[in-house]
Amino acid sequence: MCKEERQNTVLVEETIVELLTVLRHDLKNKLLIMTGHLQLLDETELDDDQKYFVEKTSGACKKTFELLEKIGLLKEIIQRGKISNVNLSSKVTDAIYRLEETALDSGFQIESDIREIQVKGYHFMEDLFVYLIENALKHSRGSLVRITSFEDDERISVIVEDDGIGVSAEERYHVFKAGYKGIGSSGFGLGLYMVDIITRACGGRIVVSDSELGGASFEVILNR
Protein backbone atom coordinates (compact mmCIF):
# COMPACT_ATOMS: atom_id res chain seq x y z
CA MET A 1 0.00 0.00 0.00
CA CYS A 2 1.45 3.38 -1.06
CA LYS A 3 1.62 6.44 1.18
CA GLU A 4 -1.42 8.10 -0.44
CA GLU A 5 -3.52 4.94 -0.02
CA ARG A 6 -2.53 4.67 3.66
CA GLN A 7 -3.47 8.31 4.23
CA ASN A 8 -6.84 7.77 2.54
CA THR A 9 -7.45 4.66 4.65
CA VAL A 10 -6.67 6.55 7.86
CA LEU A 11 -8.97 9.40 6.79
CA VAL A 12 -11.84 6.98 6.08
CA GLU A 13 -11.33 5.25 9.45
CA GLU A 14 -11.27 8.57 11.31
CA THR A 15 -14.47 9.65 9.53
CA ILE A 16 -16.21 6.39 10.41
CA VAL A 17 -15.15 6.67 14.07
CA GLU A 18 -16.41 10.25 14.24
CA LEU A 19 -19.74 9.24 12.69
CA LEU A 20 -20.14 6.26 15.03
CA THR A 21 -19.36 8.48 18.04
CA VAL A 22 -21.97 11.10 17.09
CA LEU A 23 -24.66 8.54 16.23
CA ARG A 24 -24.09 6.51 19.38
CA HIS A 25 -24.17 9.59 21.61
CA ASP A 26 -27.35 11.03 20.09
CA LEU A 27 -29.21 7.72 19.96
CA LYS A 28 -28.24 6.87 23.53
CA ASN A 29 -29.55 10.21 24.79
CA LYS A 30 -32.86 9.72 22.98
CA LEU A 31 -33.19 6.18 24.34
CA LEU A 32 -32.59 7.41 27.89
CA ILE A 33 -35.43 9.90 27.47
CA MET A 34 -37.72 7.18 26.07
CA THR A 35 -36.95 4.69 28.85
CA GLY A 36 -37.46 7.42 31.46
CA HIS A 37 -40.90 8.20 30.06
CA LEU A 38 -41.76 4.50 29.92
CA GLN A 39 -40.82 4.08 33.59
CA LEU A 40 -43.05 7.00 34.54
CA LEU A 41 -45.87 5.55 32.45
CA ASP A 42 -45.41 2.14 34.05
CA GLU A 43 -46.00 3.71 37.48
CA THR A 44 -49.49 4.90 36.48
CA GLU A 45 -52.74 2.96 36.37
CA LEU A 46 -52.64 0.94 33.14
CA ASP A 47 -54.94 -1.69 31.73
CA ASP A 48 -53.56 -5.02 30.48
CA ASP A 49 -53.20 -3.87 26.87
CA GLN A 50 -51.35 -0.73 27.88
CA LYS A 51 -49.01 -2.71 30.14
CA TYR A 52 -48.31 -5.06 27.25
CA PHE A 53 -47.31 -2.22 24.93
CA VAL A 54 -45.14 -0.60 27.59
CA GLU A 55 -43.36 -3.92 28.17
CA LYS A 56 -42.81 -4.49 24.43
CA THR A 57 -41.48 -0.96 23.95
CA SER A 58 -39.15 -1.33 26.94
CA GLY A 59 -37.83 -4.56 25.45
CA ALA A 60 -37.18 -2.83 22.12
CA CYS A 61 -35.28 -0.06 23.93
CA LYS A 62 -33.14 -2.63 25.73
CA LYS A 63 -32.23 -4.32 22.43
CA THR A 64 -31.36 -0.95 20.93
CA PHE A 65 -29.05 -0.23 23.89
CA GLU A 66 -27.35 -3.57 23.15
CA LEU A 67 -26.92 -2.52 19.52
CA LEU A 68 -25.31 0.74 20.63
CA GLU A 69 -22.84 -1.24 22.73
CA LYS A 70 -21.86 -3.16 19.59
CA ILE A 71 -21.40 0.14 17.74
CA GLY A 72 -19.11 1.29 20.56
CA LEU A 73 -17.11 -1.92 20.25
CA LEU A 74 -16.77 -1.47 16.47
CA LYS A 75 -15.31 1.96 17.15
CA GLU A 76 -12.75 0.43 19.53
CA ILE A 77 -11.82 -2.19 16.92
CA ILE A 78 -11.21 0.49 14.27
CA GLN A 79 -9.04 2.44 16.75
CA ARG A 80 -7.34 -0.67 18.12
CA GLY A 81 -3.74 0.45 17.70
CA LYS A 82 -0.86 -1.95 18.31
CA ILE A 83 -1.55 -5.61 19.08
CA SER A 84 -0.13 -6.91 22.38
CA ASN A 85 -0.05 -9.94 24.67
CA VAL A 86 -3.37 -10.75 26.36
CA ASN A 87 -4.08 -13.20 29.18
CA LEU A 88 -6.51 -15.59 27.52
CA SER A 89 -7.68 -17.25 30.74
CA SER A 90 -8.71 -13.95 32.34
CA LYS A 91 -10.65 -12.89 29.23
CA VAL A 92 -12.61 -16.15 29.16
CA THR A 93 -13.20 -16.02 32.93
CA ASP A 94 -14.47 -12.43 32.74
CA ALA A 95 -16.78 -13.34 29.86
CA ILE A 96 -18.28 -16.22 31.85
CA TYR A 97 -18.76 -13.95 34.88
CA ARG A 98 -20.68 -11.42 32.76
CA LEU A 99 -23.08 -14.16 31.64
CA GLU A 100 -23.50 -16.11 34.88
CA GLU A 101 -26.95 -14.73 35.61
CA THR A 102 -28.15 -15.22 32.04
CA ALA A 103 -26.89 -18.82 32.06
CA LEU A 104 -28.65 -19.52 35.35
CA ASP A 105 -31.93 -18.02 34.12
CA SER A 106 -31.66 -20.07 30.91
CA GLY A 107 -30.94 -23.35 32.72
CA PHE A 108 -27.38 -23.61 31.39
CA GLN A 109 -24.17 -24.84 32.94
CA ILE A 110 -20.88 -23.34 31.73
CA GLU A 111 -17.71 -25.41 32.07
CA SER A 112 -14.24 -23.99 31.38
CA ASP A 113 -10.77 -25.46 31.33
CA ILE A 114 -8.43 -22.73 30.06
CA ARG A 115 -4.82 -22.53 31.23
CA GLU A 116 -2.90 -19.31 31.87
CA ILE A 117 -1.88 -18.58 28.28
CA GLN A 118 -0.72 -15.40 26.56
CA VAL A 119 -2.04 -14.71 23.05
CA LYS A 120 -1.77 -11.83 20.61
CA GLY A 121 -4.86 -9.65 20.90
CA TYR A 122 -6.59 -6.62 22.38
CA HIS A 123 -8.46 -5.72 25.55
CA PHE A 124 -11.83 -6.20 23.79
CA MET A 125 -11.11 -9.92 23.22
CA GLU A 126 -13.35 -10.60 26.23
CA ASP A 127 -16.35 -9.57 24.11
CA LEU A 128 -15.45 -12.26 21.56
CA PHE A 129 -16.14 -14.94 24.18
CA VAL A 130 -19.16 -13.09 25.56
CA TYR A 131 -20.82 -13.19 22.14
CA LEU A 132 -19.89 -16.84 21.55
CA ILE A 133 -21.24 -17.99 24.90
CA GLU A 134 -24.30 -15.75 24.58
CA ASN A 135 -25.02 -17.25 21.15
CA ALA A 136 -25.15 -20.73 22.71
CA LEU A 137 -27.35 -19.57 25.59
CA LYS A 138 -29.84 -17.88 23.27
CA HIS A 139 -29.95 -20.16 20.26
CA SER A 140 -28.57 -23.65 20.91
CA ARG A 141 -31.58 -24.94 22.90
CA GLY A 142 -29.17 -26.96 25.01
CA SER A 143 -28.13 -26.93 28.65
CA LEU A 144 -24.32 -27.04 28.60
CA VAL A 145 -21.56 -24.80 27.24
CA ARG A 146 -18.02 -26.16 27.44
CA ILE A 147 -14.87 -24.10 26.81
CA THR A 148 -11.53 -25.84 26.27
CA SER A 149 -8.23 -25.06 24.56
CA PHE A 150 -5.25 -26.72 22.93
CA GLU A 151 -2.02 -25.30 21.54
CA ASP A 152 1.09 -25.80 19.45
CA ASP A 153 4.28 -23.76 19.07
CA GLU A 154 2.61 -20.97 17.08
CA ARG A 155 -1.13 -21.01 17.72
CA ILE A 156 -3.73 -21.51 20.41
CA SER A 157 -7.26 -22.75 19.75
CA VAL A 158 -10.19 -22.06 22.05
CA ILE A 159 -13.23 -24.29 21.57
CA VAL A 160 -16.65 -23.03 22.65
CA GLU A 161 -19.17 -25.84 22.19
CA ASP A 162 -22.66 -26.76 23.32
CA ASP A 163 -25.04 -29.73 23.49
CA GLY A 164 -27.84 -28.08 21.53
CA ILE A 165 -29.28 -28.34 18.03
CA GLY A 166 -26.06 -27.51 16.19
CA VAL A 167 -25.45 -25.49 13.02
CA SER A 168 -26.39 -27.03 9.69
CA ALA A 169 -23.89 -27.27 6.82
CA GLU A 170 -25.87 -24.63 4.91
CA GLU A 171 -25.97 -22.21 7.85
CA ARG A 172 -22.20 -22.37 8.26
CA TYR A 173 -21.79 -20.29 5.10
CA HIS A 174 -23.89 -17.49 6.57
CA VAL A 175 -23.58 -17.43 10.39
CA PHE A 176 -20.78 -14.83 10.45
CA LYS A 177 -22.46 -12.43 8.02
CA ALA A 178 -23.85 -9.15 9.34
CA GLY A 179 -27.61 -9.34 9.79
CA TYR A 180 -27.90 -13.12 9.45
CA LYS A 181 -30.42 -14.54 11.92
CA GLY A 182 -31.52 -18.08 12.56
CA ILE A 183 -35.18 -19.09 12.49
CA GLY A 184 -37.07 -17.53 15.38
CA SER A 185 -34.26 -15.12 16.34
CA SER A 186 -35.40 -11.68 17.50
CA GLY A 187 -31.93 -10.13 17.64
CA PHE A 188 -30.06 -7.97 15.13
CA GLY A 189 -27.96 -10.78 13.66
CA LEU A 190 -24.71 -9.15 14.79
CA GLY A 191 -23.40 -11.41 17.58
CA LEU A 192 -21.44 -13.90 15.48
CA TYR A 193 -20.55 -11.15 13.01
CA MET A 194 -18.85 -9.33 15.90
CA VAL A 195 -17.11 -12.57 16.87
CA ASP A 196 -15.64 -12.84 13.37
CA ILE A 197 -14.62 -9.16 13.29
CA ILE A 198 -12.86 -9.34 16.67
CA THR A 199 -11.11 -12.61 15.81
CA ARG A 200 -9.78 -11.22 12.53
CA ALA A 201 -8.75 -7.95 14.21
CA CYS A 202 -6.61 -10.07 16.56
CA GLY A 203 -4.99 -11.81 13.58
CA GLY A 204 -6.90 -15.06 14.06
CA ARG A 205 -9.72 -16.98 12.42
CA ILE A 206 -12.80 -18.93 13.51
CA VAL A 207 -14.23 -22.24 12.34
CA VAL A 208 -17.68 -23.70 13.07
CA SER A 209 -18.28 -27.46 13.10
CA ASP A 210 -20.14 -30.20 14.98
CA SER A 211 -19.56 -30.49 18.71
CA GLU A 212 -18.64 -33.69 20.51
CA LEU A 213 -21.48 -32.74 22.85
CA GLY A 214 -23.95 -33.00 19.98
CA GLY A 215 -24.43 -29.30 19.20
CA ALA A 216 -22.25 -26.61 17.62
CA SER A 217 -18.52 -26.09 18.06
CA PHE A 218 -16.80 -22.74 17.43
CA GLU A 219 -13.00 -22.93 17.27
CA VAL A 220 -11.19 -19.60 17.70
CA ILE A 221 -7.61 -19.89 16.39
CA LEU A 222 -5.25 -17.24 17.78
CA ASN A 223 -1.53 -16.47 17.56
CA ARG A 224 0.83 -16.83 20.48
Concise structural overview:
The protein is α+β, with helices and mostly antiparallel strands and 224 residues long. The chain is 51% helix and 19% strand.
- Write down the overall geometry: globular
User: How many domain regions?
Assistant: 2
What is the radius of gyration computed over CA atoms, rounded to a whole number of angstroms?
20 Å
Name of the CATH class of the largest domain: Alpha Beta
Q: How many individual helices?
A: 6
> Might you state the CATH topology name of the largest domain?
Heat Shock Protein 90
Return the CATH architecture of the largest domain.
2-Layer Sandwich
Strand content: 15-25%
Could you list the spans in which at least 5 consecutive residues all have pLDDT below 50?
none
Mean pLDDT: 87
**H/E element sequence:** HHEHHEEHEEHEE
Distance between the termini: 27 Å
For CATH, the homologous superfamily of the largest domain is named as Histidine kinase-like ATPase, C-terminal domain
Structural class: alpha+beta
Number of strands: 7
User: Portion of residues in helices?
Assistant: 40-55%
Query: In which order are the strands of the major sheet placed?
Result: 2-4-5-7-6
| Major pleated sheet | 5 strands, mixed
